[in-house]
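Need tokens for this chain, all 392 residues.
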Amino acid sequence: MYQEPVKNFNKIREYIREFYINGFKSRQDYTIKSARSYDNEKRRIESYMNDYIDYHITPGGKVPYLSIDTRITQHNPLYRVWKTKSFTDHDIILRFLILDLLHTSLSMSELMDQIDEKTNHTYLYDESTLRKKLKEYVKEGLLITNKKGKKIYYQLSEDYIIPHDILDFFSEVSPCGVIGSYILDKQEKEDSLFGFKHHYLTQVLDSEVLYDLFNAIHQHKYVSIRTSNNKIKVLPLGIFISVQDGRQYLMAYMCQSKKMYSFRLDHIISIKSLEEAEDFEVYRKELEEMKKHLWGVSFSNGSLETVEFTLHHEPWEEHIYRRLLREKRCGYVERLNENTSRFYAEVYDVKEMIPWIRTFICRIQSISISNKEVEKQFKQDIEEMYRYYEEE
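Here are the structure tokens for all 392 residues:
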């Protein structure tokens, strides 16, 4: 029988990305499972994303896709897919009992008694479970403790109530912002103060993977990451987020090759936590040093490459020089004279820079790249462009 809530979020994540974001596939293209599975998942998603689904009619059939206008969409509609994930009843009950009862200060035994009373003395939770949960909430800052004699008393922190506008902003721009969206659902609805020129909506699909990675980084643990191709043991060291397209990357030490590597989060299916890494700080410092020579997220083969070019700009084009200063990242800018500036950088992968360098083509006077294959291809592209315009 068809039911809306799901336990395994990856099922929804893969389906939405495959059919509604990346794939633009029709029913006939769904070969992983049966046609009935396709219909069930389609009904499930359309039940909470119906306002944002449109269709292309193609010779191969009816192809669904998401149609979201970020100019008028204040809140990420993809948070809805998270809110159909199911949890165990006992976990939910205990969380809300604690937050409800601890508006007043209670000791462990007093809280146990009141929980038992609220649950009709069914004794759903033992003292060990409750103690672990209280310890977790104290660490997160939800609860505060006071000691009176030998007893410890627990109470809800005043910081638990977060202003609406802070939650509103957090939920739309922060990693794992779905947490803020859940809290907003419990507050009175208010008009949003914020609008976003660049609103990266699909990040929310990777929130579960991101949460597991944040935990592993915090606990200094190795993880096994599963992609569509294989399983890889890595030590997660940080998360990079592109300001250009919103794409999220895991920066990690890959145990097999003994090199730094980056992984796109939307290519990671699941995370399994492994043993603690005693040398975590060593690799973290290594990453911090390597960041000084990263243009994007590629470490290539681990060797540095250089790029240098000079630009011509007229006296009234001071904005070109200011743009170089603003966008230089790990590079260096030198003003040679009123009409000429020099850019120089040492990076691990100069290919990542080529799209940016191309934006200065009409102003480049000279260019030198240590990776001669990249330099040759860059110059061939320019020559081909000239030929194209000559033919026109």
